Amino acid sequence: xxxxxxxxxxxxELARLPGxxxxxxxxxxxxxxRAPEQEVQDLAAAIAEVQAKISACxxxxxxxxxxxxxICEDPRRDxxxxxxxxxxxxLAAIERTQEYRGRYHVLGGVISPMDGIGPEALNIRDLVAxxxxxxxxEVILATNPTVEGDTTxxxxxxxxxxxxxxxxxxAFGLPVGGxxxxxxxxxxxxxxxxxxxx
Length: 198
Description:
By secondary structure, the protein is of the alpha/beta class. The chain has a domain at 76-173: Dna Topoisomerase Vi A Subunit, Chain: A, domain 2, CATH 3.40.1360. It has eight helices and six strands; from the N terminus they run αααββαβαβαβαβα. Helix 7 links the parallel strand 5 and strand 6. Helix 1 packs across helix 2 (22-34). The mean pLDDT is 92.
């Protein structure tokens, strides 16, 4: 279908966003065409403001609008407990549990040789420097259960061996409410390996 050039450009730009396919991009573009002008201007201003004001926390590399993020500035957080995650979205997922009271370190991705991402492209040097200061007693590796996530976790575990720090990995297994009959073999193996005493 042929669209006017500005509309086609908007659809193409929206389709570049993660999780937005061509049909979703088209629906969003048509919504924006019908939206009040102020709503569209507010959206454009919010996007521009995020680009201008959001940067990486100097300490953990999470997104922030200051030098340090709110978690790194919070004196109630346990500085001896450090959770290494691949992306800020992983940090947000753990924070939603409202159970973890330590601090974080955002790696900025995972090691993926197929995509040309090696350890030097991640925030690993800063992680080692934080652990080397001696305040951290445990590093929790919270990477996804993928080949890349497991490779990154294994690399970090080996890198942190010389330090007197406990290195753990979050457990993976069956979701709450899951059915054993529908679980795949790898999930069941992880669930058995991650078992704990009750």
